[in-house]
Specification:
- By secondary structure, the chain is an alpha/beta fold.
- The protein folds into two domains: about 180 residues, Quinone Oxidoreductase, Chain A, domain 1 (Alpha-Beta Complex), CATH 3.90.180.10; about 120 residues, Rossmann fold, CATH 3.40.50.
- The strands form three sheets. Strands 3, 5, 6, 7, 8, 15 and 16 form a seven-stranded mixed sheet that branches. A six-stranded parallel sheet has the order 11-10-9-12-13-14, sandwiched between helices.
- β12, α5 and β13 form a beta-alpha-beta unit.
- α2 crosses α3 and α2 packs across α7.
- The longest helix has 21 residues.
């Protein structure tokens, strides 16, 4: 099969012919029909600090595949060949990090890391749900513990942030957003965001009790702590800058709760798929070609993508 191999920061991805994966005990092999491109993969390509997340190089990059099960391993009874599934990012699979991931024509995944795709939901949307949806739902609902009627702030209206904002709207929250790119403000308002500003500190007088930072560039984290209400909650998802200078004064004085959020799980992805299947969640998506994965990642690097970029493997 063909796969895009990652050899560490500073090295370009390489398209290679590699052996097809084999389903081990408790695993399935998925014929990939769509796979999302993620800004964290751009960070892995550019930032040596990400090396700790890749213990076994080279590895097939990518952690957002959706497709059809083509084989099952020993002991697998809950899934069968022909099932349509999405494989969520993060534990227990850690696709594209600790094991070969989704920038390939096939991928092997533990059954604990997959969820059935509802009837009527297309593979492109399902792939977007595996990471952008899954991570956003986990941050907003599971870790953020938002409640209907709450004033919620979203930092970053990109692939994840647009989904996180919409989830908060659907859950009955009054949602505000900070996004420096004015060209995406209209999209934010279309999905129900009350007001969009360039910097989260401009919303300090709104009364935000929970802020989810999908950017993570240091200044955004500090801005969220400054803008949130006393004893409010800041959920950190974005990893745009892993190391930065941190002033803890407002965190301590205001007794702000700073929470990390990583990946998601079965219940998170199921929640996303339910919202997608109902029509309540329909994120802006752009399709891309498998042969041009590096160029797609470069578009993410340059900030040229609105919404989520998904490779269509059905062509």
């Amino acid at each position: 099969m063909r796969a895009w191999m990652f050899n560490g920061a500073g090295n370009p991805l390489e398209l290679k012919e590699v052996p097809d994966p084999v389903a081990g005990p408790g695993e399935v092999v998925i014929d990939v029909k769509a796979t999302g491109l993620c800004h964290s993969d751009v960070s892995a390509l550019d930032d040596p600090n990400w090396a700790v997340n890749f213990p076994n190089l080279p590895v097939v990059l990518g952690h957002e595949p959706a497709g059809v099960i083509s084989s099952v391993g020993e002991g697998v009874t809950e899934f069968a060949m022909g099932d349509r599934v999405g494989a969520f990012s993060g534990p227990p699979s850690n696709l594209g990090y600790y094991r070969d991931g989704g920038y390939a024509e096939k991928v092997s995944v533990p059954t604990a890391g997959i969820v059935r795709i509802p009837d009527g939901l297309d593979f492109i949307s399902a792939a977007a749900g595996t990471d952008a949806g899954n991570v956003a739902y986990h941050a907003v609902v599971t870790r953020g513990q938002i409640e209907a009627g709450e004033k919620v702030g979203i930092i970053g209206i990109g692939g994840l942030g647009q989904i996180g904002a919409r989830i908060a709207v659907v859950k009955g929250c009054e949602v505000y957003a900070a996004e420096p790119r004015e060209e995406v403000w209209a999209m934010a308002e279309e999905i129900g965001v009350q007001k969009v500003v360039k910097d989260i500190t401009e919303l300090a007088d709104v009364g935000l009790t929970t802020i989810i930072d999908f950017a993570g560039f240091g200044s955004t984290t500090m801005g969220a702590i400054e803008a949130v209400q006393p004893r409010g909650r800041v959920v950190q998802v974005g990893m745009g800058q892993l190391v930065f200078e941190f002033n803890s004064n407002s965190l301590i004085i205001k007794e702000v709760e700073l929470i990390g959020s990583m990946g998601g799980g079965t219940e998170d992805l199921q929640g996303v798929y339910d919202l997608m299947a109902s029509g309540d969640l329909a994120p802006k998506l752009t399709t891309w070609d498998f042969e041009s994965v590096p160029e797609g990642l470069d578009r993410l690097r340059k900030g040229e993508v609105q919404g989520r970029l998904v490779v269509d493997m059905q062509k």
